[in-house]
Amino acid sequence: MARRPRAVPKRHVVAAIVPGEPSLLELSAAVEVFGIARPDFADPWYELRVCGGPEEAKTDTHYGLRVIASHTLQDAADANTLIAMPWGGEWGGKGEKTTPPPEVLEVFRAAYARGARLLSFCTGAFVLADAGLLHGRRVTTHWGAADELAALYPETEVDPSVLYVDDGQVLTSAGAAASFDLALHVVRLDHGAEVANAVARGLVIPPHRDGGQAQYVGAPVAPEPGPDPFRETLDWAIEHMGEPLTVTDLASRSLMSPRTFARHFQSVVGTTPHSWLMRQRVLATQQLLETTDLSVERIAMHVGFGSAATLRNHFQRVVQTTPLAYRRTFCGSDLEAVAAN
């Protein structure tokens, strides 16, 4: 019997703190994911507050467009999640970094102290670093600014190869488009994989991009236009996930030798064929845990893990919890009696 994940039990306020010249793609990620009501998915959804800095509420402009922040910094005082946007426009490690005003940094410090969740989009990681909140943490930012962040804040572990880092209370994303990846990850944490997938479908973007931003460094745009050499193969693999697929099987579908396929797959997708397939099986497991009362053993067979033990091992490694705990979180207590979960 299909079951829907439980809704977030109370209104969850998300405050996006914007500078005088906000970068619009990061702001769009916040608006599109958190700012649009979705009563069919979860009710209440998030309440988004776009908060201007001390003097930004009436003067926000970028590329000839005016952004009027509808809230002030004071409106972020009770936010459950705060988002640090890039400060100083389109800065990308070129010596144009602007330190936010003390009032902005204090908003993030106060939020952190009371246990609120902090996100940074792109080079918004510098805002959290300026506030002294990244000490000893693993974080990411745009690859073009990663060396600068690491040099300015050597006590911070900067990983320039990933799309986002979830370090518990503080979550950071890579370049501008990765803001959507992190935002969807937050939805997945709060509402489950099925809801995150539905939001992604509405935005016509992948619910989860495998690989990291390392695949874009040095070659952000393909040298020649052409079809995706793996799209058909990946779609086929997802449809046949329950089968014991091998790299040889996938290579055959792409009309390549296994060695050539593995090399090109890593270059295009940003991860190995095996890692990609394991991640897809974990995502399918999450959805089945949320929406059905199938036992873990049956789910393992359905998604291709073969055994409950293998499923639990991969699930724990990727999701950082057990299938039973995950099911309890997103389906409530009515499935706790399902055996062997």
Give a summary of the structure in a few sentences.
With 341 residues, the protein is α/β, with parallel strands linked by helices. The protein is 41% helix and 11% strand. The protein is built from 13 helices and 10 strands.
Task: Give the SSE layout.
Elements: E1 12-18, H1 24-34, E2 46-52, E3 61-62, E4 65-66, E5 81-84, H2 102-113, E6 117-120, H3 125-130, E7 138-139, H4 143-152, E8 157-158, E9 164-167, E10 170-173, H5 178-191, H6 193-203, H7 231-239, H8 247-253, H9 258-269, H10 273-291, H11 296-303, H12 308-319, H13 323-331
Parallel strand pairs: 1-2, 1-5, 5-6, 6-10, 7-8
Antiparallel strand pairs: 3-4, 9-10
Characterize the overall form.
Answer: globular
- What's the domain count? 2
Helix content: 40-55%
CATH superfamily of the largest domain: Class I glutamine amidotransferase (GATase) domain
Total number of helices: 13
- Measure the end-to-end span: 17 Å
- Write down the CATH class of the largest domain: Alpha Beta
Nearest-integer average pLDDT? 83
What does the oligomeric state look like here?
single chain
Strand order of the largest sheet: 2-1-5-6-10-9
CATH topology of the largest domain, by name, is Rossmann fold
> What is the number of beta strands?
10
Can you walk through the features of this model?
It is built from 13 helices and ten strands. The protein has helices spanning 24-34, 102-113, 125-130, 143-152, 178-191, 193-203, 231-239, 247-253, 258-269, 273-291, 296-303, 308-319, 323-331; strands at residues 12-18, 46-52, 61-62, 65-66, 81-84, 117-120, 138-139, 157-158, 164-167, 170-173. Strand 1, helix 1 and strand 2 (46-52) form a beta-alpha-beta unit. Helix 8 crosses helix 9, helix 10 (273-291) crosses helix 13 and helix 11 packs across helix 12 (308-319). It is globular, with a radius of gyration of 21 Å.
